[in-house]
């Protein structure tokens, strides 16, 4: 049956050696095993900073009976391993027990055995819950222990090397990512600058177009005003023309009436000379009236010609105004298109500004990543130093192992005494 590990942790302990007491961090391993039909308990105490420091305690039912009698323990052997593991857990630095239990390792008078104790200090006195006589491990066990440490350090060195390689790969990938982000940031800034310049140019053109459109509108309004005035003048001239036409018609009717009178008088002249003077007067009056009518007719003709010229001018002004109105409508349509384009460009500008902000955030992340890479470099350097130190420790441990192996061989195989040579 495999051993059952009940406790395997590093505890802050007080070690008394050579009349001095110092704090050490000891690795305490408590295992429960079944050998045959009997339950056995094994306790191992080691120090990671002192590879040759290894204390062991083994206990079966017989040994525990003696221990129970000497220290007046109340529990049975079957419950002892679990209870001992509970006491060790209360020796942890993060234990909530007040006061916290302490681990002591002290020398015994024989110089070979040491005493492993669990104490409870309080204001009145220090209570000793348990004391176990532990002994130094056999050279073979120390050899296995040191080999285990060497294997562990070798694995840790390999893992540290793998971590260093991974950090280097991550650093290279991060550097590539940083360069990529920097290139994208530069390209984005350039594109954003060009887009901003293009937008500003379009905005300036739009403002100039708005100014020209406003001037064109004012000009069209002035032309419309002139056209209205010309139409009013034309209407007035047309009224006067109609009045002159009416007067000319009345004058023609008078001329016809005078002509009829003249014909009548001519016919009546045959009746006598008495009517001669009267007829002469009527003729003179008729001639004067005819001259006046001819003058009025000439004036009316001149006014008609002038009215026709003004009408032609009004029609040409109306055509020009219509063209200007069409031009104004086209300009207004272009203005509306420019306004819509400007709105779209503003939206694009907002998008570009957002992208620029995101690029700035990426730049900050790049800076943070660079700092993390520097920290990783520092960690790799520290791990390299640790690996070198581990190699030195492994070298020293190998030397100690070789020395222990030589010492063990010398103890197990003593050299025979020299014997005299046998005669031939």
Automatic annotation (TrEMBL):
<keyword id="KW-0206">Cytoskeleton</keyword>
<dbReference type="GO" id="GO:0005813">
    <property type="term" value="C:centrosome"/>
</dbReference>
<dbReference type="InterPro" id="IPR032396">
    <property type="entry name" value="SAS-6_N"/>
</dbReference>
<dbReference type="Pfam" id="PF16531">
    <property type="entry name" value="SAS-6_N"/>
</dbReference>
<feature type="compositionally biased region" description="Basic and acidic residues">
    <location>
        <begin position="232"/>
        <end position="256"/>
    </location>
</feature>
<keyword id="KW-0175">Coiled coil</keyword>
<feature type="compositionally biased region" description="Basic and acidic residues">
    <location>
        <begin position="207"/>
        <end position="218"/>
    </location>
</feature>
<feature type="coiled-coil region">
    <location>
        <begin position="283"/>
        <end position="379"/>
    </location>
</feature>
<dbReference type="InterPro" id="IPR038558">
    <property type="entry name" value="SAS-6_N_sf"/>
</dbReference>
<feature type="region of interest" description="Disordered">
    <location>
        <begin position="207"/>
        <end position="256"/>
    </location>
</feature>
<feature type="domain" description="Spindle assembly abnormal protein 6 N-terminal">
    <location>
        <begin position="32"/>
        <end position="133"/>
    </location>
</feature>
<keyword id="KW-0131">Cell cycle</keyword>
<keyword id="KW-0963">Cytoplasm</keyword>
<protein>
    <recommendedName>
        <fullName>Spindle assembly abnormal protein 6 N-terminal domain-containing protein</fullName>
    </recommendedName>
</protein>
């Amino acid at each position: 049956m495999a051993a059952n590990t009940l406790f395997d942790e590093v505890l802050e302990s007080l070690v008394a050696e050579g009349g001095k007491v110092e704090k050490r961090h000891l690795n305490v391993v408590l295992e429960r095993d079944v050998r045959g039909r009997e339950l056995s308990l094994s306790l191992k105490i080691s120090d990671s900073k002192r590879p040759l420091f290894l204390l062991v305690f083994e206990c079966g039912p017989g040994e525990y009976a003696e221990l129970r009698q000497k220290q007046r323990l109340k529990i049975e052997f079957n419950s002892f391993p679990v209870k001992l593991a509970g006491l060790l857990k209360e020796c942890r630095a993060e234990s909530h027990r007040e006061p916290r239990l302490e681990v002591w390792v002290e020398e015994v008078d024989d110089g070979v055995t040491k005493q492993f104790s669990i104490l409870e200090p309080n204001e009145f006195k220090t209570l000793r819950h348990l004391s176990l006589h532990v002994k130094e491990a056999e050279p073979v066990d120390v050899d296995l222990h040191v080999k285990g440490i060497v294997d562990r350090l070798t694995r840790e060195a390999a893992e540290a090397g793998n971590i260093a390689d991974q950090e280097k790969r991550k650093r290279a990938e991060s550097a590539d990512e940083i360069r990529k982000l920097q290139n994208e940031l530069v390209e984005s800034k350039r594109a954003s600058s060009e887009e901003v310049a293009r937008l500003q140019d379009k905005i300036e053109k739009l403002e100039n177009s708005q100014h020209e459109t406003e001037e064109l509108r004012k000009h069209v309004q002035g032309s419309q005003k002139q056209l209205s005035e010309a139409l009013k003048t034309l209407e007035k001239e047309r009224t006067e023309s109609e009045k002159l036409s009416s007067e000319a018609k009345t004058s023609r009717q008078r001329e016809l009436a005078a002509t009829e009178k003249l014909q009548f008088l001519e016919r009546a002249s045959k009746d006598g000379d008495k009517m001669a003077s009267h007829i002469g007067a009527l003729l003179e009056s008729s001639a004067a009236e005819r001259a006046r009518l001819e003058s009025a007719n000439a004036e009316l003709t001149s006014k008609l010609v002038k009215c026709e010229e003004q009408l032609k001018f009004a029609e040409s002004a109306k055509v020009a105004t219509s063209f200007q109105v069409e031009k104004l409508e086209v300009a207004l349509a272009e203005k509306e298109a420019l306004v819509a384009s400007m709105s779209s460009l503003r939206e694009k500008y907002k998008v570009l500004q957002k992208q620029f902000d995101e690029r700035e955030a990426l730049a900050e992340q790049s800076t943070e990543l660079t700092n993390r890479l520097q920290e990783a470099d520092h960690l790799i350097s520290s791990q390299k130093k640790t690996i070198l130190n581990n190699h030195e420790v492994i070298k020293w441990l190998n030397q100690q192992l070789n020395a222990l192996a030589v010492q063990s061989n010398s103890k197990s195989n003593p050299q025979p005494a020299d014997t005299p040579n046998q005669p031939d």
